[in-house]
Specification:
Mean pLDDT: 76
Distance between the termini: 74 Å
Radius of gyration: 37 Å
Number of helices: 11
Number of domains: 3
């Protein structure tokens, strides 16, 4: 049931008489008493509402003497193209092209950064005694071809000639995909099998030595060989084959003399990951010298869980981490 204004006032009077508390009349103002043409106002609201300021309110200044003006500029007449319209066009063009901008009112400039890391600066200059404006765009760093494309769109937008529907984003265009395909095909033609086999032979010899630092260096080298960001595709594929297939790749190759290191690398990683052990482990532990400082917490001590020196336990943990990373790289390659 809805109450009108008189009923609300009567209820407030009854509440004051029974409870002894005095109510504020403004809380019981009936909304029916408000005129339909009167707008609702919020507390502490400025009326009429003010429009939010423009994101960029530049203060134009004249071009300094001996200023090297860039060729990527355009002169516009302020009578035909008001300053606020030029700013609105530029801001809208930046939004369409997904270009990040940091505006400065004085001097009138904007620092721009595109999605493909092209850094540009846009300046507004006053010329001809304030009758014209010069829009200048400078490239600070990044691809020059992409800069000219962005600059052309911005200058067209300043003059009112930019059409957002015709804008095409070249970040994932077919030209880039074709160039990537061509690069991969050219890299696949290079044959460096002999060099890759020599590198794998060095890795296998390091993994079979009786020093823990040599084996750790061998795993680090194998990690680099299986990383596509640091090795060729052919080298990474050959190293990944040795890691994952091992004896199977030797059996398929039919040349056991040349591909013996495949079995050595595969066996070493399997034993390290599954059994957390290595060949000649006792000789490595007995040959390790305790060069700890007397202030070290592990001086005269061993690891309680494994009974091994702390240096060996730490090296084993690092080697297991390298082995897992090598497996991850190999699965990614193959």
């Amino acid at each position: 049931m809805r109450l009108d204004g008189s009923q609300l006032e009567k209820s407030s009077t009854e509440f004051e008489r029974t409870s002894g508390h005095k109510t504020q009349n403004k809380l019981f103002v009936s909304p029916l008493n408000r005129k339909p043409s009167e707008p609702r106002r919020l507390k502490n609201e400025i009326w009429p509402r003010q429009l939010p300021p423009q994101p960029w309110a530049p203060k134009l200044r004249c071009i300094p003497s001996y200023y090297p003006m860039e060729r990527s500029n355009r002169i516009l007449n302020l009578a035909e193209n008001p300053l606020q319209e030029i700013i609105s066009r530029i801001v809208e063009c930046l939004r369409v092209m997904s270009v990040q901008a940091h505006f400065s009112d004085e001097p009138a400039c904007a620092a721009l950064m595109s999605a493909d890391h092209v850094e540009m600066h846009l300046y507004l200059w006053e010329i001809n005694a304030g009758h014209d404006i010069c829009v200048e765009i400078q490239r600070r760093r990044g691809d020059s071809v992409a800069f000219h494309r962005y600059g052309r769109h911005l200058l067209d937008a300043a003059g009112g000639d930019f059409d957002p529907s015709e804008f095409q984003d070249y970040n994932d265009s077919h030209y880039l995909r074709a160039a990537e395909k061509l690069l991969k095909s050219e890299m696949a033609k290079s044959d460096d099998t002999e060099e890759s086999l020599v590198a794998l032979q060095i890795v296998a010899s390091l993994l079979t030595k009786d020093r823990i630092d040599a084996r750790l260096l061998g795993l680090e080298s194998l990690f680099i060989l299986t990383d596509l960001r640091k090795s060729r595709m052919s080298t990474a594929s050959l190293a990944s084959t040795a890691v994952l297939l091992g004896p199977e790749s030797v059996r398929e190759a039919g040349n056991k003399t040349s591909y013996t290191m495949f079995t050595q690398i595969h066996t070493f990683l399997v034993q390290l990951l599954i059994h957390r052990s290595m060949d000649n482990e006792e000789a490595i532990v007995s040959g390790m010298e305790d060069d700890y400082d007397s202030d070290d917490d592990h001086f005269f001590g061993t690891d309680e869980t494994s009974g091994r020196p702390p240096e060996y336990v730490q090296a084993m943990t690092t080697m297991v981490q390298f082995s897992l990373a090598i497996l991850s790289n190999s699965w990614e390659v193959l």
